[in-house]
Amino acid sequence: MDAAQIRNDLMTAGFTLDVERERLMVSPASRLTKVQRELIRENRTSLVELLTQAANDTSPARSRWLITLLDGTRWSISRTPPSTLAELQAEYPGARIEPEALCTAAPAPVSRYLDTDRRQCSDCSELARDGACQAARRGALRQTSRSYAPDPETLHRCPAYLPGPADPDRRPGRERWPNLARRFLVTDANRGKAA
Ligand code: SF4
């Protein structure tokens, strides 16, 4: 796992990362698991570099980007918290990286989301433009192939669900379905354990 992924995972888990006088500060430190502490220790130098670079980067951070590799492979990504261009350039060296154009289609009516339980993959920010599930691609979904391309229209419960911009309920899947998350979501804390 690289520094950007570690930083993103920690921030998504509610931690704040900062660099003060070239020292890496993570808070609240008391909540860090043993695995997280180990990861931070092993990647301290690259985390400091990444955070320093991000602090000096004046380009705006965005949630949605389009990545195009040299071979023409193209997909969209969604970032929580948002990433800057410099951060993504460090992650995808040589790739063309551009902000994803805002969708101009009419938003889905709110009634579309009145089934407060299940969601479609097409509602989820983790669904890439090429149809692949980015959570699966990262290895965040246990028992799921990294090349998983779900049916976008099937209603289901997914612990890696990240609400898209039109979903009025902003809770991610791990909060909506904690039992599923315990069994199927791969986190630093449970990495390597059986489901
Ligand atoms: S994270 Fe879950 S809901 Fe989102 S695209 Fe992947 S499989 Fe679908």
- Which structural class should the secondary elements be placed in? alpha+beta
Helix % is 25-40%
Cα-to-Cα separation, first versus last residue = 21 Å
- Biggest sheet statistics: 3 strands, antiparallel
Task: Note the run of SSEs as H and E.
Answer: HEEHHEEHEHHH
What gyration radius follows from the Cα positions, in whole Å? 17 Å
Low-confidence segments, given as residue ranges, are 102-106
Counted by DSSP, the helix tally is 7
Instruction: Give the integer mean of the pLDDT values.
Output: 79
Bound molecules: iron/sulfur cluster
Can you count the beta strands? 5
| DSSP strand content | 15-25%
Shape: globular
Oligomer type: single chain
Q: What order do the strands of the largest sheet run in, or round the barrel if closed?
A: 4-3-5
In short:
The chain has 195 residues and is an alpha+beta fold.
Textual characterization of the structure:
By secondary structure, the chain is α+β, with helices and mostly antiparallel strands. The chain folds into three domains: 3-56, no CATH class; 62-99, no CATH class; 112-195, no CATH class. Helices cover 28% and strands 16% of the residues. The protein is built from seven helices and five strands, in the order αββααββαβααα. It has helices at 3-12, 34-42, 44-56, 85-91, 134-137, 173-176, 178-184; strands at residues 16-20, 23-27, 62-68, 74-83, 96-99. The strands form two sheets. Strands 4-3-5 form a three-stranded antiparallel sheet. Strands 1-2 form a two-stranded antiparallel sheet. It is globular, with a radius of gyration of 17 Å. Bound molecules: iron/sulfur cluster (SF4).
